[in-house]
Amino acid sequence: MKNYYKLSLKCPKCCKELGDTEKIIDGIPAVKFIIHSHGEEGLIWLSALYGSYEKQSTLNVPEGEISSFSCPHCKAELISNANCNLCQAPLVDLHLFEGGKVSICSRAGCTKHSIEFEDLNTAINHFFNVFETQSHLPK
Ligand SMILES: [Zn+2]
Ligand SMILES: [Zn+2]
Questions:
Q1: Rounded to the nearest whole angstrom, what is the distance from the C-alpha of residue 106 to the centroid of ligand 2?
Q2: 67 near 35, Cβ under 8 Å?
């Protein structure tokens, strides 16, 4: 059985929730962004499940293209000062409501396009909490 961890993400600039209750991916509200690619503006939704690669977009961004990601609330561009360790494209930084942050790659089709914890300690804490909860469930 695969255990997924549901992420609650907020914009690092305005601190508003990025989950969109009108767009369900993997059975839960997806994470919404505004994207710009080749001068066009669109929306993209990424699955809020850690480890899922599901996404939907109003733009047809070809594999390999880098898009810029912005907050749907304050329109700030969400860019990290770090680059993807797989493809060198800029990363997009997001904050977790519980604390800590995650990053996604801005290049379409990059295998780092799913949401990943940047800080290993954060990841360990989250998974440990999930594991704790599950181990206490009645059999
Ligand atoms: Zn914002
Ligand atoms: Zn990448």
A1: 7
A2: yes
Q: Which residue ranges make up each domain of the chain?
A: 5-135
Helical residues (DSSP H) of 1-139, grouped into ranges: 120-135
* Each residue's pLDDT tens digit, 1-52: 455 678 889 999 999 999 999 999 999 999 999 999 989 999 999 998 877 8
**3-class DSSP assignment, residue 89:** coil
- How many angstroms separate the alpha carbon of residue 107 from the centre of ligand 2? 6
User: What is the structure's pLDDT at 27?
Assistant: 92
pTM: 0.80
| Cα–Cα distance for residue pair 42/26, rounded to 1 Å | 21
User: Which listed ligand is nearest to 65 at the C-alpha?
Assistant: 2
